[in-house]
Design brief:
Helices cover 42% and strands 14% of the residues. With 266 residues, the chain is α/β, with parallel strands linked by helices. Helix 4 packs parallel to helix 5, helix 5 crosses helix 6 and helix 8 packs parallel to helix 9. Bound molecules: 3-methyl-2-oxobutanoic acid and sodium ion. Sodium ion (NA) binds next to loops. Its EC number is 2.1.2.11. It catalyses: (6R)-5,10-methylene-5,6,7,8-tetrahydrofolate + 3-methyl-2-oxobutanoate + H2O = 2-dehydropantoate + (6S)-5,6,7,8-tetrahydrofolate. One of its GO terms (molecular function) is methyltransferase activity.
Length: 266
């Protein structure tokens, strides 16, 4: 398998080949993603919830992100590695650059992900891109804004909010983002954003029209305690092994079978 790169992801979008992305937090899971041919492994700050037991992603530190990203990097070869900038790593451009330098230079990520499209975030996207650090933007239900939203709520439900998210998507692209994760928005908005952008749009709870899909691995293996989020699916049920479950997820994303209508918001 050829290594997945920023240019190859853009070729996939142009060719209509869906991109498969999944979170990983350690070497063993990374190895399973690699063997299943997953295109992108994301070390998400969701690890604060599914690994550390916090009720949000806010307590995750940069040291913890570096630790988990290093572990995942050792399990990968062709799969691209993306790491989240943790909460408040965007407090100013200098902190964001220092954080990205550790995640890429020390831990081995090929790209960093940052939430939102506020002016300071656009500046960080621009500055990192100028330093040849590709950036994945993240819009819609951005979990680091949980207190602003008043919970993990679907975003972009009314027309004004949807227009705002589309404008943010165009702004992060113009700032230089190489990729966009779009989370927790109605299917119609997922389709609009994907159609409007040149860069690939990876959806999670954003409908079937995105250029690719991402899930939290604990959700799609049925490991996460409590109720499974509506936009996820337990791929371990009926597939018998972790490798078969990840393989089924990759196949269903590529064929368009996942997400189905029951995983989407209207
Ligand atoms: O932290 C994470 O796992 C994420 C994905 C849900 C996109 O940001
Ligand atoms: Na995240």
């Amino acid at each position: 398998r050829k290594p997945v790169t920023v240019p190859s992801l853009h070729v996939m979008k142009a060719a209509g080949q869906r991109i498969v992305m999944l979170t990983a937090y350690d070497t063993s899971f990374a190895w399973h993603l690699e063997n299943a041919g997953v295109d992108i492994a994301l070390v998400g700050d969701s690890l604060g919830m599914v690994v550390q037991g916090h009720s949000s992603t806010l307590p995750v530190t940069l040291d913890q992100m570096v630790y988990h990203t290093s572990a995942v990097a050792r399990g990968l070869s062709a799969t691209m590695l993306v790491a989240d900038l943790p909460f408040m790593a965007d407090r100013d451009t200098a902190h964001a650059m220092a954080a990205a330098a550790r995640l890429v230079g020390e831990a081995g990520a090929a790209m960093v992900k940052i939430e939102g499209a506020a002016p300071h975030v656009l500046e960080i996207i621009d500055v990192l891109t100028a330093r040849a650090i590709p950036v994945c933007a993240h819009l819609g239900l951005t979990p680091q804004s949980v207190h602003k939203f008043g919970g993990f709520r679907i975003q972009g439900r009314d027309e004004a909010a949807a227009d705002r998210i589309l404008a943010e998507a165009l702004a992060v692209q113009a700032a230089g983002a190489a990729l966009l994760v779009l989370e927790g928005v109605p299917t119609g908005l997922g389709e609009r954003v994907t159609g409007a952008l040149q860069i690939p749009v990876i959806g999670i709870g954003a409908g079937p029209h995105c250029d690719g899909q991402v899930l939290v691995i604990h959700d799609m293996l049925g490991i996460t305690p409590g109720k499974r989020p509506k936009f996820s699916k337990d791929f371990l049920a009926g597939n018998g092994s972790v490798s078969a479950a990840i393989g089924a997820y990759a196949a269903d994303v590529r064929s368009g079978a996942f997400p189905g209508p029951e995983h989407c918001f209207s």
